[in-house]
From TrEMBL, chain A:
Residues 4-234 form the ABC transporter domain. It catalyses: a quaternary ammonium(out) + ATP + H2O = a quaternary ammonium(in) + ADP + phosphate + H(+). Keywords: ATP-binding, Nucleotide-binding, Transport. PROSITE patterns: ABC_TRANSPORTER_1 (PS00211), ABC_TRANSPORTER_2 (PS50893). This is Carnitine transport ATP-binding protein OpuCA. The keyword Nucleotide-binding applies. The keyword Signal does not apply. It comes from Neobacillus rhizophilus. InterPro entries: AAA+_ATPase, ABC_SmlMolc_Importer, ABC_transporter-like_ATP-bd, ABC_transporter-like_CS, Mo/tungstate-bd_C_term_dom, P-loop_NTPase, Transp-assoc_OB_typ2. GO terms for cellular component: ATP-binding cassette (ABC) transporter complex.
From TrEMBL, chain B:
It comes from the Bacteria. GO terms for biological process: transmembrane transport. It is found in: Cell inner membrane; Cell membrane. One of its GO terms (cellular component) is plasma membrane. Residues 63-250 form the ABC transmembrane type-1 domain. Belongs to the binding-protein-dependent transport system permease family. The keyword Lipid biosynthesis does not apply. Its main location: membrane. This is ABC transporter permease subunit. It is a multi-pass membrane protein. InterPro entries: MetI-like (IPR000515), MetI-like_sf (IPR035906). PROSITE patterns: ABC_TM1.
Amino acid sequence: MSYVTIENISKAFKGQTVLHDLNLSFKQGEFVTLLGPSGCGKSTLLRILAGLTSPEQGVIKIDGCDVTNVKAKDRQIGMVFQSYALFPNMTVSENIAFGLKMQKIPSETIKQKVARMVALVGLAGKENAYPRELSGGQQQRVALARSIVTEPKVLLLDEPLSALDAQIRKNLQKQLRTIQQELNITTVLVTHDQEEAMAVSDRIYILNEGRIAQSGTPHEIYTKPGSEFVARFIGNYNVLEGSELSIATSEREFSNRLYAIRPEAFSAQYMEDSYTFSGRVNKVMMLGNITRYEFSSNGIVVTAEHLHQSDEDVQEGARKTLYLHKKDVIPLS
Amino acid sequence: MNKNRPFFHYLTIGAVLLYLLVPLLGTLIYSFSTQWHKTILPEGLTFHWYGELFSDSLFLKAMGRSLILSVGATILSLLIMVPAIFSIVVYAPRLEKFIQALIVLTYAMPGVIIAVGLIRAYSNSGMPMVVVTVGAYFVGILPYMYQGTRNSLRNIQAVSLMEAAEILGASRFTAFLKVILPNIMPGVLVSSLLSFSILFGEFVLVNLLIGGSFETVQVYLYKKLNVSGHIASAIVICYFILISILSSIIVKVTRSRKETL
Amino acid sequence: MKKINGMLVASLIPFLFLILLFLFIPLFFMIYGSFQADGGTGFSFKQYQEIFQNEYYRQAFKNSILISLLSSFIATLLAIFATYSITHFSSRIQNRVLIFANLTSNFAGIPLAFAFIVLLGNSGLFTLLFKHFGWETLSSFNVYSWSGLVLIYLYFQLPLAVMLLYPVYQGINKHWKEAASLLGASSTQFWLRIGIPIILPSIAGTFSILFANAMGAYASAYALTGSTYNLVTIRIGALTTGDIFAKPELGSAIAGLLGLTLVVAMLLNEWLTRKVRRDLS
């Protein structure tokens, strides 16, 4: 039974359609990510869900109720903004208490709830600090606390981590996921960062030009990209035409137009049931524990990755033979 | 950079500062001097003129009238202009073009021109000309109030703050009062003080619209010019001290705001 | 589907009402009046004809334009050098100078005219000083003359010019200068080929604002000699409120022409500023 449904939603700005008749549904407690490049319409969809933008057509249902014409303030939704939108004139606890005060909850209860929330997001001791006195990561956690203290039916996150350093982002991703599971809040995250989407989501919708390109679990999406767009967007997939593959492997069985190959699927060891690529190593790039290099086989260039191992040193200009399991050549629609 | 500063730079700044300073200093000394008609230096120093000025009930009344006009117009713009600019910036950004066109129009219609129109439109309409003057002042300070309010709204990212407050269950009005207003207050205050100090020195509209019947400080000063130069210079100095105080408040508020943001 | 925003409507109505009442209606009445014969007795181009035919009013425009051009030109020129010099000092001193400029920019109109009378009037401080040393040419300087008025105009134009030009110099990126010098350009070459072309539109914009400012000025000249100076603004004031010589329709027509001049100056500035923004973005 789905908890949030988005039915036939369309939206246009100045005659330009940005969302084409979208249908999505989320289960209760699910962590869903809307993933896509900038301008794909993911933020617009989130704002429609929040009630900040109204759709041209379509219906939004939350917990069985049609909320399409309900104002943002009455939708019982929590939202963390990209800029956090913390109120600069209020302290951390006043920011967190704001939503509760709007609900006219007794001040004793507010105090308890705020204290619990401050502890949950790890900001004990900062209750009376103003937003400007906090680091970016701390501000982000205040924004999160402020949006979940009201126990919203759905939590919306609009690129909440994009302004933070890589290290802090990784930590906050983990923390976000932990808190979400602890409170079992239905959560919708908007991001353009495919690694972030893979790391935190139960399910991912990939959006492209206002349409859903693919949906599924992170594993499904990563291992079975359905289209060229998804293959190119979610990783460093090699996308090759059938004819190119025929030249590279000297085999003639590639009837599909396009194929996707994960770079780490190439192996230097011989495997049963595999294609053979023989050629020369072009450019080598060290990426920490991974070595990435361009490999040219009969003039066709592919990218391959290996775990960085001392016994298998990849030298620029070296001749090499790579093997690729047949099941790792994914035909694209 | 500090060491090899050419003499040229001292010369240019010095010349400009001197030019701006000398008339003020001259007036200052004149306001404290007993007699100064034939000698190169004043014959004596005295507070007499200031004493006479502040015991003149006409001056105090003029002061009161000036305050009524300029404070009235400033408060009117706080109550009406600030919410309007807020709504436009947040909900109808397309209308900002319209406001900017209005501002160009107000620059292109200085006091003399607008006074001609106001006299033609309202001198026989039954609307008191004092009210008309306040209305004209309201229009005149639009550029300053708009600038200050809009910049403050942009600095605090008012659009996101409003959305955040609404999602947390606040109505638009509550969100404006509790979230937006406290955060734009310093900027709006600066604009108000600036507007006030400009209006306090305004002469053209007052003189043309209500000069005879409603004597403000500027009109009082104009009348004193030919009566007593010493008292006139005491007024000028008091006026300058007032705008200095206002300016220093503006500078302080602006600076502390820069530090906190 | 589109909902009416109550807050927007409620806040705009009183605002637009006041703007209509105190900007558009007087504007309309002024323009309408300018196309009326004396006493408002029917549509006529007579007032505009009068302005162009009557030597006196032509002279008023000539005088206003001359003094505005002259004071704007001197103020801009001085400010170009002085403001450039300011940027060579520490930011603390820069701030102080700007605050002082801001302060003196408020010092205009009647008080300013009076300060110059104190200095250069018939028994002004400098006049007495010059007399004492027997400098005839200087002591016979008359503040009530045209050159006196130019000095006063210059005083209120100068701080404005400094404040308008200061951000322009701030906008000149230090890295441009460094990049140019690494490419072998001398300081003079930098200013000739990069600096001046970049700030030129802003200088022209500043000039047009100063020009408009001077064209609309009224109080200083009025304070010096009442209605004797033949300036456009003084004429408008006299024609509109004078008891005996009141010709409000003619005053409206002159005001209309003045307004047109100012609109052109402001649009010129708008256009130039936009040009700068495009260059710099």
